[in-house]
């Protein structure tokens, strides 16, 4: 097992992709430095790729293409407003999944009943639809999900051979229906049989703003 992990790490070329509208939270920078230092302990040296732009879906598409062009094997999406532990990326790597990420809270007012709402959804085979579970009902071990937010997500770049461009699309309708780019990506992955997983044991922070 130890030999396999070392072999896996030696052939892994990781790019950390960060889409941003122009700012990065100081807490995110501190988390990122800690994570990159931790990865070096496991002989993984990650390159940071940042994509500046006002539209998140095109930013993610460019980050994917940049990582592929760079000859990377994996892309680690980290949003510019996330707080995560130093070993968070390493924990995801150890799962050796095509797509795996961590759950974190949606950004809502602390007075909201949904303040601790998860950013994942599960599939209900009986109703043939996805649903958002309550945070307290989530598994304590790695579990399969239907959709997963891309704010802290590790992707094996081989999966993009199965998906059509653009990989990330966001849209809205006149009836106030909205599809975020990460949900679209996850749904397209599900269509071609790519499984997605969530590690619930990575303590995340999703930074917002609140006037007291």
Q: Helix content range of the residues, please? A: 25-40%
- Order of secondary-structure elements: HEHEHEEHEEEEEEEEHEE
Q: Which whole number gives the mean pLDDT? A: 88
The whole-angstrom Rg is: 17 Å
Total beta-strand segments: 14
How many domains? The number is 1
What can you tell me about this protein's structure?
The protein has 212 residues and is an alpha+beta fold. It has a single domain (2-206), classed as Spore Coat Polysaccharide Biosynthesis Protein SpsA, Chain A. 27% of the residues lie in helices and 25% in strands. A seven-stranded mixed β-sheet has the order 2-1-3-10-5-13-8. The chain has a three-stranded antiparallel β-sheet with strand order 7-6-9. Strand 6 (120-124) and strand 7 (129-131) form a beta hairpin. The longest helix is centred in the N-terminal third of the chain and has 16 residues, at 26-41. The chain is globular and about 45 Å long.
